[in-house]
């Protein structure tokens, strides 16, 4: 007796080694990943703590500077010389006017020189129609800027206001009359470039950046001239989470965000830093980790390849052999030169194929030959039916003496029998079969045009090439005429339609005969179901049997009643893609 070569111990050791290797290596890899993430988190937290402290200090310094400017602004509002200019300008002589203006300009220059963030200071004196400025001296009254400042003072309660893309501190002085316009407005314009320069000092890394936001004033200032285009995305996330430190993916890159807020000023300072910058000190550890992971991966691949080559691939060959056998391919043997377990399995598989092939030659092929012979016999039985009925119609027309219709009928009959005799094939394209059925209905119109109407839908182009047994549609139509429509006293109606889905085509023939009840329908369905009956085979059963032999189980005729108690016959053809019918 043939014995299978046994190398199970060797294979078992191999499997255990691979398994033990993974058990030892995976915890080390996981530990390395944990240490890397722990180091990264600590570095990220430390950077965030340092950045938050720096941002808070920056806002405190900026708040002190703004408070000092607000004090100076308040002093200017109370300045007697400025109030004298605004109220008694018409009473002053030119010397006093010049002296007072020079004093105010000197005062404004002194305030500007003591602040690093002031770009210019304006005093808009409405009553004298002039505007005083550190940079421009005495100018005509700037009505447009005055109106803008007046509107902001009425509508905005925030300390800082935005005007022409800059932050402003503004305040007004009113006279004694209620509801009157302000005597003058003091405007301190902050220098955006100096604010940007102060923001740049917050950037510890070259890749980092800072953003100053006055949300109430609608003002945003970036530490560099290139704006961070997705700042709105961060701001929405920040409002939703109320977190001062966040990690977000923006424009395909991951950023660390830290934010400090000043409720007094309504300002926020945001610092952002690419995640790669945080990970940079860990790059050497990362390289070693990747090297170790790569080496481990190569070792696993070598082991996996060996397993695939010596175990998995031979199994796949065997599985593919069984699949080919299931699909009917019994002549494809598996060649294997090694004398191992798979060699034994392949040898047994090949022997099984030989035995199956011998059994099929003895049984299956004989059965197929019998089915082909039966199909030929059924095909030959259907041909005489129409011939008998045609001579009956011709006889009826001859009795009426209608020579014109006899001539038309004989021409159609000649076309019909030309189709029957010129094609010796068992199967024809559906387009030809439908054309033949239409010819039959045209012949019947010669007899029943006044009391039987026919609606013959167009055959869809995608169904024209389907190969069908000859004479499967016309006999069904003939049956409708013979057993229902001819006997009707009222107007008869015959309708032929077509349907197709992915793997099925249907031809539907229905009439309004009015004589079909449930009992008759049940008898017809029973006769169709009993395909092994030995009694005389009618045309409808003949068609049903031929379609089943051609297309297989599930195909054939399906019978049902119409709303008018007529008969609905559905010719159902199910095909597989490899049959080439679809």
UniProtKB/TrEMBL annotation:
<feature type="transmembrane region" description="Helical">
    <location>
        <begin position="287"/>
        <end position="305"/>
    </location>
</feature>
<keyword id="KW-1003">Cell membrane</keyword>
<feature type="coiled-coil region">
    <location>
        <begin position="52"/>
        <end position="79"/>
    </location>
</feature>
<keyword id="KW-0812">Transmembrane</keyword>
<dbReference type="InterPro" id="IPR036890">
    <property type="entry name" value="HATPase_C_sf"/>
</dbReference>
<dbReference type="InterPro" id="IPR003594">
    <property type="entry name" value="HATPase_dom"/>
</dbReference>
<dbReference type="Pfam" id="PF06580">
    <property type="entry name" value="His_kinase"/>
</dbReference>
<keyword id="KW-0808">Transferase</keyword>
<dbReference type="InterPro" id="IPR010559">
    <property type="entry name" value="Sig_transdc_His_kin_internal"/>
</dbReference>
<dbReference type="InterPro" id="IPR003660">
    <property type="entry name" value="HAMP_dom"/>
</dbReference>
<dbReference type="InterPro" id="IPR050640">
    <property type="entry name" value="Bact_2-comp_sensor_kinase"/>
</dbReference>
<feature type="domain" description="HAMP">
    <location>
        <begin position="309"/>
        <end position="361"/>
    </location>
</feature>
<keyword id="KW-0597">Phosphoprotein</keyword>
<feature type="transmembrane region" description="Helical">
    <location>
        <begin position="12"/>
        <end position="36"/>
    </location>
</feature>
<dbReference type="Pfam" id="PF02518">
    <property type="entry name" value="HATPase_c"/>
</dbReference>
<keyword id="KW-0175">Coiled coil</keyword>
<protein>
    <submittedName>
        <fullName>Two-component system sensor histidine kinase YesM</fullName>
    </submittedName>
</protein>
<dbReference type="GO" id="GO:0005886">
    <property type="term" value="C:plasma membrane"/>
</dbReference>
<keyword id="KW-1133">Transmembrane helix</keyword>
<dbReference type="Pfam" id="PF00672">
    <property type="entry name" value="HAMP"/>
</dbReference>
<keyword id="KW-0418">Kinase</keyword>
<dbReference type="GO" id="GO:0000155">
    <property type="term" value="F:phosphorelay sensor kinase activity"/>
</dbReference>
<keyword id="KW-0472">Membrane</keyword>
């Amino acid at each position: 007796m043939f014995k299978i070569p046994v190398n199970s111990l060797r294979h078992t050791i191999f499997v255990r080694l691979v398994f033990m290797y993974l058990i030892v290596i995976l915890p080390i890899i996981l530990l390395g990943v944990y240490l890397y993430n722990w180091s990264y988190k600590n570095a990220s937290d430390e950077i965030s703590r340092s950045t938050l402290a720096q941002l808070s200090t920056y806002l405190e310094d900026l708040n002190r500077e703004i408070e000092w400017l607000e004090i100076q602004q308040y002093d200017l509002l109370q300045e007697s010389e400025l109030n004298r200019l605004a109220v008694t300008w018409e009473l002053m002589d030119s010397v006093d006017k010049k002296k007072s203006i020079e004093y105010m300009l000197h005062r404004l220059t002194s305030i500007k020189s003591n602040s690093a963030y002031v770009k210019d200071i304006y005093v808009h004196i409405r009553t004298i129609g002039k505007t005083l400025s550190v940079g421009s001296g005495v100018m005509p009254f700037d009505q447009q800027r005055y109106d803008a400042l007046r509107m902001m003072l009425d509508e905005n309660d925030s300390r800082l206001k935005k005007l022409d893309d800059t932050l402003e501190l503004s305040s007004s002085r009113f006279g004694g009359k209620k509801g009157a316009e302000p005597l003058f407005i003091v405007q301190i314009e902050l220098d955006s470039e100096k604010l940007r320069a102060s923001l740049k000092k917050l950037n510890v890394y070259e890749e980092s950046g800072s953003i100053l936001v006055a949300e109430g004033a609608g003002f945003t200032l970036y530490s560099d001239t290139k704006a961070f285009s997705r700042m709105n995305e961060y701001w929405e996330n920040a409002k939703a989470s109320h977190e001062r430190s966040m990690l977000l993916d923006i424009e395909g890159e991951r950023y660390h965000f830290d934010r400090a807020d000043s409720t007094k000023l309504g300002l926020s300072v945001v610092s952002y830093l690419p995640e790669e910058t945080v990970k940079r000190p860990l790059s050497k550890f990362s390289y070693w980790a990747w090297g170790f992971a790569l080496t481990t991966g190569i070792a696993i691949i070598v082991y996996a390849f060996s397993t695939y080559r010596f175990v998995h691939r031979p199994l796949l060959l065997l599985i593919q052999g069984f699949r080919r056998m299931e699909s009917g391919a019994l002549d494809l043997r598996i060649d294997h030169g090694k004398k191992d377990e798979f060699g034994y399995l392949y040898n047994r598989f090949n022997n099984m194929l030989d035995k199956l092939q011998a059994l099929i030659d003895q049984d299956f092929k004989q059965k197929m030959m019998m089915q082909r012979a039966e199909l030929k016999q059924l095909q030959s039985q259907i041909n005489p039916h129409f011939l008998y009925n045609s001579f009956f119609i011709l006889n009826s027309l001859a009795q009426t003496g209608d020579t014109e219709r006899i001539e038309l009928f004989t021409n159609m009959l000649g076309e019909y029998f030309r189709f029957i005799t010129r094609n010796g094939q068992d199967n024809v394209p559906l387009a030809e079969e439908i054309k033949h059925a239409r010819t039959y209905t045209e012949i019947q119109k010669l007899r029943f045009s006044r009391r039987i109407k026919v609606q013959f839908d167009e055959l869809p182009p995608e169904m024209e090439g389907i190969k069908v047994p000859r004479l499967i549609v016309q006999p069904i139509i003939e049956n409708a005429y013979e057993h229902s429509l001819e006997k009707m006293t009222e107007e008869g109606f015959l309708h032929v339609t077509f349907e197709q889905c992915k793997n099925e085509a249907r031809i539907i023939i229905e009439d309004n005969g009015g004589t079909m009840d449930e009992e008759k329908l049940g008898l017809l369905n029973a006769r169709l179901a009993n395909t092994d009956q030995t009694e005389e085979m009618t045309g409808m059963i003949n068609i049903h049997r031929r379609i089943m032999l051609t297309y297989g189980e599930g195909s054939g005729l399906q019978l049902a009643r119409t709303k008018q108690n007529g008969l609905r016959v559905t010719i159902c053809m199910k095909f597989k893609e490899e049959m080439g019918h679809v």
